[in-house]
Amino acid sequence: GAVVSQHPSRVICKSGTSVKIECRSLDFQATTMFWYRQFPKQSLMLMATSNEGSKATYEQGVEKDKFLINHASLTLSTLTVTSAHPEDSSFYICSAGLGSSYEQYFGPGTRLTVT
Amino acid sequence: AQKITQTQPGMFVQEKEAVTLDCTYDTSDPSYGLFWYKQPSSGEMIFLIYQGSYDQQNATEGRYSLNFQKARKSANLVISASQLGDSAMYFCAMSPWDNYGQNFVFGPGTRLSVLP
């Protein structure tokens, strides 16, 4: 149990376009999901906390108008990278907790390449 | 604010030997959880082991054990009998205990290479 999926696993888009990444909790309900970004050879950095039914909370330095987060249901959160630039190329990982447990479950990640 | 430090950017270990990956942390939270994750080249984050700040005993999970020294604020991961499949990035992370679903703060990671 406690499986988190992400789609797509890899995406290549042209500079200036937008791309949407989905994060789903497959067998549990997640009131809170987290979005991380990982640049090559670096650690995971939290971008935002996604709360079901309310606005996301963004970390300092993360542009909320560029990285749109929608947590429409208890099992789905989406991250949309708008007007993508090559510097947005990164590995994006989501995670979700069960709420009654300390543990978080990570999605497999999405590798975004902006050309 | 919480901070995790992993001072070993890279480590090498001979197959079947034990290896210790260092992790120190800084927090003002009275209760917290400490975690270790493994990230192979595929990118997925694999949960290895957890230690609660009030746990009296060091956590163990199979070949993984956590050497928790609260006074020193260290939570080193010990991998016994290393296997070639253990080669990966290892991240130490922490989270406040009293906030369910609270985000993690990750350390910079240690790349472990197991030599045949």
Which descriptors apply to this entry?
heterodimer, A: mainly beta, seven-stranded mixed β-sheet, 52% strand, globular, B: 116 residues, mainly beta, six-stranded mixed β-sheet, four-stranded antiparallel β-sheet, 0% helix
Assembly level: heterodimer
Beta fraction of chain A: over 45%
Head-to-tail CA distance between termini of chain A: 37 Å
> How many strand elements of chain A?
11
Shape of chain B: globular
Approximately how much helix is present in the residues of chain A? under 10%
Verbal overview:
The complex is a heterodimer of chains A (115) and B (116). Chain A is an all-beta fold. Chain A is 0% helix and 52% strand. The radius of gyration of chain A is 13 Å and the shape is globular. In chain B, the strands form three sheets. In chain B, strands 2, 5, 6, 10, 11 and 12 form a six-stranded mixed sheet that branches. Chain B has a four-stranded antiparallel sheet with strand order 3-9-8-7, with no helix packed on it. Chain B has a two-stranded antiparallel ribbon with strand order 1-4. Chain B has strands at residues 3-5, 10-14, 19-21, 24-26, 32-39, 46-52, 60-61, 64-69, 74-79, 88-96, 105-106, 110-115. Chain B is globular and about 45 Å long. Chain B is built from no helices and twelve strands. The N and C termini of chain B lie far apart (41 Å). With 116 residues, chain B is an all-beta fold. The A-B interface holds A 30-32, 34, 42-46, 49, 91, 93, 95-106, 108-109, 111 and B 33, 37, 42-45, 47, 50, 52, 91, 95, 97, 100-109.
